[in-house]
Amino acid sequence: MKRTFSIVATLALVFSFAVAGQAEKKPVAASAQQGWHSLFDGKTLKGWDGKKQFWSVEDGAITGTTTKENPTKGNTFIIWQGGKVSDFELMFEYRFVSKGGNSGCQYRSEHVGNHVVKGYQGDFEAGTRYSGINYGEKTGRGILSDRGNKTTYSKDGKKSVEKFGDSKELQKKIKGQGEWNTMHIIAKGNHMIHKINGTVMSETIDGSSKAVSEGILAFQLHAGPPMKIQFRNVKLKSLGK
Q1: What's residue 233's pLDDT?
Q2: Same domain, 30 and 46
Q3: For the chain, how far is it from start to end, CA to CA, in angstroms?
């Protein structure tokens, strides 16, 4: 009887440890996805508004295309219709199908009409100069923070720059034509961080009177030579206050 009890007890103990181990793993997986919401269904442009002659869904991705026969006279945008964002994290993948091209993600921005948007932009391009910067699209402010810089603006608009990385070295973290890159934008209060493929590209602390705390999200299709840009796995998490 003693031996039988010992075996049963041992089996029960092993089982309890196995169950406990599984219980510990589940919350980790759940917490990794907690708060993230998909903004694109991978099949249609439901929830997005852009000019139909430029925007479509191809290869399971939001696709912006211009051609010689169908150019855009100015920068045009596809705008998320889910409302304004304030403090948030946004993640998505992008790739340039064309050899050239320039694009970006607008956030805390404003629709000024005819699918034209102004405001903060996480910039990226098929070239090697601008990807990862914070650009003030149509605000007259130009580059707010360059790649490799942490830029702080005081209330009166004066800026100070702290360099944390070399722009050319950071460019090496970004994949080329036809390859998918992951962009991660974090905006909390007046602090904005742009990451590409897990690497911080720029930081902006906008304490100026021109700072914007909330606005819309949009993707850009830049005017100029023919180009094709794609976006997929677009997801948003509100950070609250």
Answers
A1: 98
A2: no
A3: 62
Radius of gyration of the chain (CA): 23
Provide the domain limits for residue 228. Answer: 37-238
What the block records as the tokens of 179 is 């390859």
2 contacts: CB under 8 Å, gap ≥ 6? none
Asked if 124 and 196 touch (Cβ cutoff 8 Å), the reply is yes
- Phi and psi, residue 79, nearest 5°: -110, 130
Q: What is the pLDDT of residues 40-82, one digit of tens each?
A: 999 999 999 999 999 999 999 999 999 999 999 999 999 999 9
Predicted local confidence at residue 34, as pLDDT:
84
Q: At residue 57, what is the residue type? A: V
3 state DSSP class of 15: helix
Q: Read out DSSP for 211-222?
A: ----BEEEEEE-
Q: Is residue 56 classed exposed, middle or buried when 0-12, 13-18 and 19+ CB atoms within 10 A define those classes?
A: middle
Residue keyed to tokens 């191809």: 58
pTM of full prediction above 0.70: yes
In contact, 66 and 227? CB cutoff 8 Å: yes
Residue 156, CA distances (Å) to 42, 111, 129, 149 in order: 44, 26, 29, 20
CATH number at residue 58: 2.60.120.560
Residue 167: which of 137, 196, 136, 207 has the closest Cα?
Answer: 196
